[in-house]
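Progress report, Aim 2. The chain analyzed during this reporting quarter is listed below.
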Amino acid sequence: MIFLKLFYEFFKVGLFSVGGGLATIPFLEEMAQRTGWFSVGQLADMIAISESTPGPIGVNMATYVGFTTAGVLGSLVATLGLITPSVIVILIIIQILNRFRESGAVQSVFTGLRPASLALICAAGISLVKVSLLNLDLWKESGAILDLLNWKCILLAVAVYFLIKKFKGHPGIYLGASAVLGIVFKLGA
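Predicted structure tokens for the chain:
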């Protein structure tokens, strides 16, 4: 039963998250609250791991959730659930576009999808900021404005931003160095 539920939940995510892997984050937040398979804090870890490993972020997160929920078979089922809608939609679109390539309606559909994709990605970005740079729970307890911000993570983000701008190194170097600094300075604690 868990495998069917994993497939179904990730099928929905794959069907409705237009705009790439980051667009899956709002759907995964909702899934975390509804299913209890993972917490919002674990979602932040999934995002970090998925961003720093090869492959599409959405697929990496589906694989991670599937594995933590139901082992290796769960990871396969969740990943298949996520990619199946894309395969189906692509096959349908290929048939339609070949017939209606110059149609104004088709062009309008794609024009309408762009802002929706942008909104989903922005929502994901805001969620990432809330999880990684803000201490909402600590702030609610203390009420002190200085407790709202996760200063160590903000300083790391600013430092990495300026290092990227200055040295133009490979992103993997910055991800690896940030992961090591996160462990050394216990940034998640």
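DSSP finds eight helices and no strands in the chain. Residues 161 and 167 are 10 Å apart (CA to CA). These observations will guide the mutagenesis work planned for the next reporting period.
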